[in-house]
């Protein structure tokens, strides 16, 4: 029993530390995180829909899900490049990273639209 | 037999007997309508006087009532030709020929001029056609104007020079330097020579005429023959230039013969059957499609042979008797069924009528033989009759069908199990049943109206099983009684052991039987034993040959059935659900306290910033259009322009922001 309560406490402490640590992240990174969450949730809803009614227009399903997943991946990439803690991309201005993000999204969605049917 | 050729008249019988009318019309209305079609002038006139003459002559002979009014235009071109000093002998010849029909007025001066010109042409002529046109022209002038004193000074000399073109086989050459000879030329030469004789002021040497007669007889040796007895003249196809075809050639020869026979007082002993053969040829070719052939056919028939004239075109037939010499039943060659009998002549209709059929003639087909006998013996010199004429005649009638009945018999006892009367003239729906130990008997009687027995060509009973397997039996007869007995025991194998319903159909037919019948009698239910193992199978039914060329079965395309779609409400609900994360995203942004403070305050970078966002929006809108209606190429083209614009403004605004943040850092 004591073990359980201590686990709970540990988990609570972990969450607490995580939240406090996350609160320290810059707002622009939070925005990107929010965006990634939004994209992933949208994808999940589509997957649930597919599980319920079947995958008949399979290309449409794939387009929808991949659009979300793809843009989420691109957002993650953007986040990596924008994060100042990453020394690797220290010399890269965040504007340049954002331009890449926009361009890749446009290309991705051109393909998605073509595949949508 | 025939002393004068000009008056040859081949009488063709027009016989009408009771119902079996047999009317032979050599020149029919179809000729008249064909004539109107063929001789249609272009813009009111024909191309040449030759055509004009042919048209006029054809209409004259046929007595076409609706003939186009040709006379006026013809007269104009005739007087033009006659008046002109440059017209050739050929033009003059045809002008005068046409004039012999239209009877236009030619003034005397012109005719004098023509006479002198034609005379000059005769003396200067070197080829057969030159002689033909010039001499023919002179003859026509002589005929048309009684006053004109037309004669040839040196008739005998001209005669000899024309005669020089003759060949040993009876054919003639066109000119002395052309070695080819033809029958067509022979006709022309004979006509020319006849003209010379009629123009001669003194008698022509008789020896010349008799040699000419020999030539004619030789010419007849080269006559050609069709299988049906039709005779015709034809030239070998040499070079096609002067070849005229059999109709023209024969016509030319006949015109020549007629003209020649008209001027010589001598006998021309030509066999009558040859003339008959020639007449057959012209009648046998029907209605020619070519105007020239048509003219030649009509002209020959009317002018030379006078076949149609006597019977169809309305001139009087000399008094004569048509005799029914005999009638033979077809199939049997035994003695004639009737004695010779004269036909009554009906003056008003001009037909010879056999009033009553002889008693011995009953329903069936017969060959009647008729003979034409002339009343006055001197007619025999002028007319030639076509010997005996055989006419196939079918005498038809209603055949009485009596005592028709159908019965099922017991095989061993012969007792009648069930018997039914049939009405073969009406409808029947007999329904019988029998097993393989029984017999089927069908019987009926046929009698002719005169009460004799009648044997039709066909008397069949047909049984058709449900599976379309058919069996046909011939119904035999003894006298009037027709009977067929089907012993099913013996027929079991033939019926392929097929039990079940058989439709029965009776056929009684003959060409002479007016009430030939093909009736469905009804059906019989047969109960046959089971087929043993080795029994023959019924043959496969023949495929209808028409179905092979008929339309194929329509191909229906099977499309994949549309997938089952989810209910619309569910889909709409999920559409709403997908918007939820977006709302969550926006709410999250608000919670984070996002603002637009970094938006450049200066107007130029602000414009670029706005344009950048508008550009992205435009590209996304383009994608929507790509999804809805545009194709990839249109999209890429527009995307190219938008992309360049977007790169430009994007670069400007982002570099401005980068510069601003760098400045902030350094500061």
From TrEMBL, chain A:
<keyword id="KW-0256">Endoplasmic reticulum</keyword>
<dbReference type="GO" id="GO:0008250">
    <property type="term" value="C:oligosaccharyltransferase complex"/>
</dbReference>
<comment type="function">
    <text>Subunit of the oligosaccharyl transferase (OST) complex that catalyzes the initial transfer of a defined glycan (Glc(3)Man(9)GlcNAc(2) in eukaryotes) from the lipid carrier dolichol-pyrophosphate to an asparagine residue within an Asn-X-Ser/Thr consensus motif in nascent polypeptide chains, the first step in protein N-glycosylation. N-glycosylation occurs cotranslationally and the complex associates with the Sec61 complex at the channel-forming translocon complex that mediates protein translocation across the endoplasmic reticulum (ER). All subunits are required for a maximal enzyme activity.</text>
</comment>
<comment type="similarity">
    <text>Belongs to the DAD/OST2 family.</text>
</comment>
<keyword id="KW-0812">Transmembrane</keyword>
<dbReference type="GO" id="GO:0016740">
    <property type="term" value="F:transferase activity"/>
</dbReference>
<dbReference type="GO" id="GO:0006487">
    <property type="term" value="P:protein N-linked glycosylation"/>
</dbReference>
<keyword id="KW-0472">Membrane</keyword>
<feature type="transmembrane region" description="Helical">
    <location>
        <begin position="58"/>
        <end position="78"/>
    </location>
</feature>
<keyword id="KW-1133">Transmembrane helix</keyword>
<feature type="transmembrane region" description="Helical">
    <location>
        <begin position="34"/>
        <end position="52"/>
    </location>
</feature>
<dbReference type="Pfam" id="PF02109">
    <property type="entry name" value="DAD"/>
</dbReference>
<protein>
    <recommendedName>
        <fullName>Dolichyl-diphosphooligosaccharide--protein glycosyltransferase subunit DAD1</fullName>
    </recommendedName>
</protein>
<comment type="pathway">
    <text>Protein modification; protein glycosylation.</text>
</comment>
<keyword id="KW-0053">Apoptosis</keyword>
<feature type="transmembrane region" description="Helical">
    <location>
        <begin position="98"/>
        <end position="116"/>
    </location>
</feature>
<dbReference type="InterPro" id="IPR003038">
    <property type="entry name" value="DAD/Ost2"/>
</dbReference>
<comment type="subunit">
    <text>Component of the oligosaccharyltransferase (OST) complex.</text>
</comment>
<keyword id="KW-0808">Transferase</keyword>
UniProtKB/TrEMBL annotation, chain B:
<dbReference type="GO" id="GO:0006487">
    <property type="term" value="P:protein N-linked glycosylation"/>
</dbReference>
<keyword id="KW-0808">Transferase</keyword>
<keyword id="KW-1133">Transmembrane helix</keyword>
<dbReference type="GO" id="GO:0008250">
    <property type="term" value="C:oligosaccharyltransferase complex"/>
</dbReference>
<feature type="domain" description="Ribophorin II C-terminal">
    <location>
        <begin position="559"/>
        <end position="659"/>
    </location>
</feature>
<protein>
    <recommendedName>
        <fullName>Dolichyl-diphosphooligosaccharide--protein glycosyltransferase subunit 2</fullName>
    </recommendedName>
</protein>
<dbReference type="InterPro" id="IPR056790">
    <property type="entry name" value="Ribophorin_II_C"/>
</dbReference>
<comment type="subunit">
    <text>Component of the oligosaccharyltransferase (OST) complex.</text>
</comment>
<keyword id="KW-0812">Transmembrane</keyword>
<feature type="domain" description="Ribophorin II third">
    <location>
        <begin position="403"/>
        <end position="526"/>
    </location>
</feature>
<keyword id="KW-0732">Signal</keyword>
<dbReference type="Pfam" id="PF05817">
    <property type="entry name" value="Ribophorin_II"/>
</dbReference>
<dbReference type="Pfam" id="PF25147">
    <property type="entry name" value="Ribophorin_II_C"/>
</dbReference>
<comment type="similarity">
    <text>Belongs to the SWP1 family.</text>
</comment>
<comment type="function">
    <text>Subunit of the oligosaccharyl transferase (OST) complex that catalyzes the initial transfer of a defined glycan (Glc(3)Man(9)GlcNAc(2) in eukaryotes) from the lipid carrier dolichol-pyrophosphate to an asparagine residue within an Asn-X-Ser/Thr consensus motif in nascent polypeptide chains, the first step in protein N-glycosylation. N-glycosylation occurs cotranslationally and the complex associates with the Sec61 complex at the channel-forming translocon complex that mediates protein translocation across the endoplasmic reticulum (ER). All subunits are required for a maximal enzyme activity.</text>
</comment>
<feature type="transmembrane region" description="Helical">
    <location>
        <begin position="570"/>
        <end position="594"/>
    </location>
</feature>
<dbReference type="InterPro" id="IPR055373">
    <property type="entry name" value="Ribophorin_II_N"/>
</dbReference>
<keyword id="KW-0256">Endoplasmic reticulum</keyword>
<keyword id="KW-0472">Membrane</keyword>
<dbReference type="Pfam" id="PF23860">
    <property type="entry name" value="Ribophorin_II_3rd"/>
</dbReference>
<feature type="domain" description="Ribophorin II N-terminal">
    <location>
        <begin position="27"/>
        <end position="302"/>
    </location>
</feature>
<feature type="transmembrane region" description="Helical">
    <location>
        <begin position="638"/>
        <end position="659"/>
    </location>
</feature>
């Amino acid at each position: 029993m004591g073990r359980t309560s201590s686990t709970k406490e540990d988990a609570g402490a972990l969450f607490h530390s995580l939240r406090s640590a996350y609160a320290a992240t810059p707002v622009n990174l939070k925005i990107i995180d929010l965006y990634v969450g939004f994209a992933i949730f949208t994808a999940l809803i589509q997957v649930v829909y597919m599980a319920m009614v079947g995958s008949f227009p399979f290309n449409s399903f794939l387009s929808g899900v991949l659009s979300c997943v793809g843009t989420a991946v691109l957002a993650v990439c953007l986040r990596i490049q924008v994060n100042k803690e990453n020394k690797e991309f220290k010399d890269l201005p965040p504007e340049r990273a954002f331009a890449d993000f926009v361009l890749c999204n446009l290309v991705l969605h051109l393909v998605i639209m073509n595949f949508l049917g | 037999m025939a002393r004068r050729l000009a008056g040859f008249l081949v009488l063709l019988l027009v016989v009408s007997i009771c119902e079996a009318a047999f009317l032979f019309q050599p020149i029919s209305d179809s000729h008249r309508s064909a004539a109107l079609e063929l001789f249609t002038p272009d813009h009111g006139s024909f191309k040449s006087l030759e055509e004009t003459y042919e048209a006029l002559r054809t209409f004259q002979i046929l007595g076409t009532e609706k003939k186009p009014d040709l006379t006026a235009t013809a007269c104009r071109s005739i007087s033009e030709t006659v008046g002109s000093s440059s017209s050739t002998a050929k033009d003059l010849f045809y002008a005068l020929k046409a004039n012999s029909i239209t009877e236009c007025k030619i003034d005397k001066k012109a005719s004098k001029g023509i006479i002198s010109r034609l005379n000059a042409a005769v003396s200067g002529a070197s080829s057969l056609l030159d002689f033909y046109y010039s001499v023919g022209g002179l003859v026509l002038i002589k005929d048309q104007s009684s006053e004109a004193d037309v004669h040839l000074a040196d008739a005998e000399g001209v005669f000899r020079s024309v005669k020089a073109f003759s060949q040993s086989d009876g054919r003639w050459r066109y000119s002395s330097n052309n070695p080819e000879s033809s029958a067509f030329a022979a006709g022309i030469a004979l006509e020319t020579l006849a003209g010379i004789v009629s123009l001669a002021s003194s008698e022509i040497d008789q020896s010349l005429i008799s040699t000419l007669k020999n030539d004619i007889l030789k010419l007849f040796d080269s006559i050609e023959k069709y299988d049906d007895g039709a005779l015709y003249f034809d030239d070998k196809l040499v070079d096609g230039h002067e070849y005229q075809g059999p109709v023209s050639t024969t016509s030319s020869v006949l015109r020549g013969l007629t003209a020649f026979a008209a001027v010589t007082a001598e006998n021309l002993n030509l066999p009558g059957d040859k003339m008959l053969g020639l007449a057959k040829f012209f009648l046998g070719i029907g209605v020619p499609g070519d105007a020239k052939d048509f003219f030649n056919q009509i002209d020959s028939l009317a002018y030379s042979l006078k076949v149609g004239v006597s019977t169809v075109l309305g001139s009087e037939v000399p008094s004569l008797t048509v005799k029914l010499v005999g009638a033979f039943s077809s199939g049997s060659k035994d003695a004639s069924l009737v004695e010779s009998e004269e036909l009554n002549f009906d003056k008003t209709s001009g037909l010879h009528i056999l009033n009553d059929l002889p008693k011995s003639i009953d329903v069936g087909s017969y060959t009647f033989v008729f003979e034409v006998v002339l009343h006055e013996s001197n007619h025999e010199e002028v007319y030639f009759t076509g010997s005996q004429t055989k006419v196939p005649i079918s005498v038809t009638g209603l055949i009485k069908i009596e005592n028709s009945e159908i019965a099922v018999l017991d095989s061993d006892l012969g007792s009648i199990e069930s018997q039914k009367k049939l009405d073969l003239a009406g409808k029947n729906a007999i329904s019988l049943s029998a097993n393989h130990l029984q017999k089927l008997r069908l019987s009926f009687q046929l009698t002719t109206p005169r009460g004799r027995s009648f044997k039709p060509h066909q008397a069949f009973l047909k049984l058709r099983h449900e599976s379309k397997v058919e069996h046909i039996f011939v119904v035999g007869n003894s006298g009037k009684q027709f009977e067929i007995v089907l012993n099913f025991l013996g027929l079991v194998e033939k019926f392929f052991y097929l039990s079940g319903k058989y439709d029965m159909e009776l056929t009684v037919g003959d060409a002479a039987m007016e009430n030939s019948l093909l009736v469905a009698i009804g059906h019989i239910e047969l109960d046959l034993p089971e087929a043993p193992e080795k029994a023959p199978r019924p043959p496969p039914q023949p495929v209808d040959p028409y179905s092979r060329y008929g339309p194929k079965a329509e191909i229906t395309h099977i499309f994949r059935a549309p997938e089952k779609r989810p209910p619309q409400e569910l889909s709409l609900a999920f559409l709403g659900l997908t918007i939820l994360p977006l709302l969550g995203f926006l709410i999250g942004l608000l919670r984070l306290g996002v603002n637009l403070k970094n938006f450049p305050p200066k107007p130029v970078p602000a414009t670029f910033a706005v344009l950048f966002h508008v550009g992205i929006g435009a590209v996304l809108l383009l994608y929507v259009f790509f999804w809805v209606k545009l194709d990839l190429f249109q999209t890429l083209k527009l995307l190219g322009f938008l992309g360049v614009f977007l790169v430009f403004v994007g670069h400007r605004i982002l570099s401005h922001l980068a510069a601003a943040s760098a400045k902030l850092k350094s500061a």
